[in-house]
Amino acid sequence: MERKAVITGVGHYVPPKILTNQDLAKMVDTSDEWIVSRTGIRERHILEGKKGTSFMGIQAAKMVLKERNIRPEEIDLIITATVTPDTFFPSTACRIQEGIEAWNAWGFDLNGACTGFVYALGTGAQFIRSGAHNKVLVIGADKMSAIVDYTDRTTCVLFGDAAGAVLLEAVETDENIGVIDAILRSDGSGGEHLYMMGGGSLHPATYETLDKKMHYIFQDGPTVFKFAVTKMADISAEILQKHQLSGKEIKYFIPHQANLRIIDAAARRMGLDDSQVVVNIQNYGNTTAATIPLALSEVYHQNKLKKGDYVVIAAFGAGFTWGSALLRWAI
Ligand code: UT7
């Protein structure tokens, strides 16, 4: 019998406030037609009030605990993938630990940008397989509205706020189930194309960094697009080949939701038809580390996943970072 890392619960949180393409067309020089045809996005959700990313992570984690019917004290570890932590420190994971009262857990934030959830799931699974922990909460959460410049039409139409969470548990079994594999990559030479320059140790906040809008996200869209299309398609196909699976054997492909055209390119490479590809970008835009667990939670709660189903997740983001994971559903 082998010790497997199995997803036993999934949850998400989306703030109620909706920002539509029509709303954005009143704020910057853009149109619903441009946004839909170039990205697939129709609306996104925005977290209002004095709330940070941890607020959304706490709601998503509480949904998981409630549905799985376990006490927060049973959680051993909380990994929070985010690029919009409430604060640099303490970590958002510590804030979530307090919020859900997981008093026996430790935790940390993981910055893998849009690939954050895939990195965090791969990392969490290792803590389980190694025998270190039995119950790990893996959360992807981002309040992108906190770092978006709503006068920059090239980025403000793309992003939204949300959180998703999964519970990984140890299961001793001979069955090939749970998080079967994760292929994780990065290429730091891509850093100049997608970043937020200000606020870190290189460019601490000054009047100058504020004037130069360095506390906002910058993206060279076409360059990132070019890399994303190739890398996400390659790594999605690679994980299938590695496990000798054909596209037909996959129940769902759940890609990072940055651009419908990037998703389509990856799905084509894997030989999938539309019914196998989970797309919700029209409703939420790019919620960075939250896109995949949010989509997974939606599919699960629509009762579309059955025990034994193969699921592939894949993402590409700032760094550059990219990765894919193969899951075999077990609940
Ligand atoms: O999630 C992390 C990784 N990120 C990604 O994967 C995103 C990758 N990039 C993309 O998805 C796409 O590059 C974008 C959606 C960001 C942009 O689409 P594009 O087809 O690459 O457009 P573009 O940037 O080449 O811009 C085409 C034109 C430009 O005008 P000119 O220079 O041709 O006159 C832009 O100024 O569209 C203009 N444009 C807009 N027009 C209306 C850019 N943003 C907008 C806008 N509304 N919001």
Describe the 3D structure.
This protein folds into two domains: 2-173, Peroxisomal Thiolase, Chain A, domain 1; 178-328, 3-Layer(aba) Sandwich (Peroxisomal Thiolase, Chain A, domain 1), CATH 3.40.47.10. It is α/β, with parallel strands linked by helices and 331 residues long. The mean pLDDT is 98. The protein has helices at residues 21-25, 32-39, 53-68, 92-100, 116-129, 153-156, 207-211, 221-242, 260-269, 281-284, 291-301, and strands at residues 2-13, 17-20, 43-46, 77-81, 106-110, 135-143, 161-173, 178-186, 194-195, 218-219, 250-255, 310-317, 321-328. Strand 4 (77-81), helix 4 (92-100) and strand 5 (106-110) form a beta-alpha-beta unit. It contains eleven helices and 13 strands. The strands form four sheets. Strands 1-7-6-4-5 form a five-stranded mixed β-sheet, sandwiched between helices. Oxa(dethia)-CoA binds at residues 30, 34-35, 38-39, 114, 153-154, 157, 221-222, 224-225, 228, 258-259, 262, 286, 316-317.
Briefly summarize what is shown.
The protein has eleven helices and 13 strands.
Keywords:
single chain, 331 residues, alpha/beta, Peroxisomal Thiolase, Chain A, domain 1, 2 domains, five-stranded mixed beta sheet, four-stranded mixed beta sheet, 11 helices, 13 strands, 26% strand, globular, binds oxa(dethia)-CoA
